[in-house]
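Protocol step 4 of 6: structure prediction from sequence.
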Amino acid sequence: MTPRLRLIVGNWKMHKTIPEAVGLVEHLADLLKKSPPTNVTIVIAPPFTALSAVASALTTHGLFEGTGGGTSRPGSPPVSIAAQDMHWEDAGAYTGEVSPPMLKDLGCRYVIVGHSERRRYFGETDALVRKKVLAALRHGLRPILCIGETWDQRARNQTGSVLAAQLTEALTDVDKDQGADVVIAYEPVWAIGSGQPATPTQAREAHRHIRARITARWRHETGERVPILYGGSVTPENIGELLAIREVDGALVGGACLDPPQFARILAVASSAKA
């Protein structure tokens, strides 16, 4: 079985105007050129308003990996862009929403779906997340499916059942041929923004449970190809410990990705981590 590549995703959330976004990319591009990471797939997820400008800035620096296979220069680490959310319909009377074809048109290769903040603040259900997963796959976008338990659920020993329920509903109707294009992000809700990530033992157990579930659903060959990321207070100081866990294939990074030197350090550690 070919080892899964390290996948590091930076979720900017609701931060950065267009000029600020371009400035961040310019700084990050300079750092990546000085010390290019290898053996790692880099994805950044700016807000909708900055996607086009970020893609252009990456292209200028020869770093952009677009939907058509990319424009990155030889020797440069390719960077793909992701949207932080999307609607499940191609078009329609859905004021304020953004469709999969719109994201493809901007050069997105990935889209984050089911993030805990979408679930908590906007009432997104597993059934709604499933619609978005299917829409992403239908349009050739790789969904980064976020799942995770609250602290109360963990305290009641419900982590396994919560993760199983989220996976079962969100992946209903996704067949094994599509499964290899799915990315899973385990984000314990209680760790996000807390400064207290899951312990290696907690992360290992959750990732093993997720791997067992998707392997049972899509069988071993497909299940083993699906990257499972950890998210929740990821920093340059703890990324090495997390990636040392065999079951962790990468990270969904929040606050640290808004600081180019910190994000570059995370990428450097991921690049040197043993697969």
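Step 5 (inspection) to follow. The chain has one domain: 6-272.
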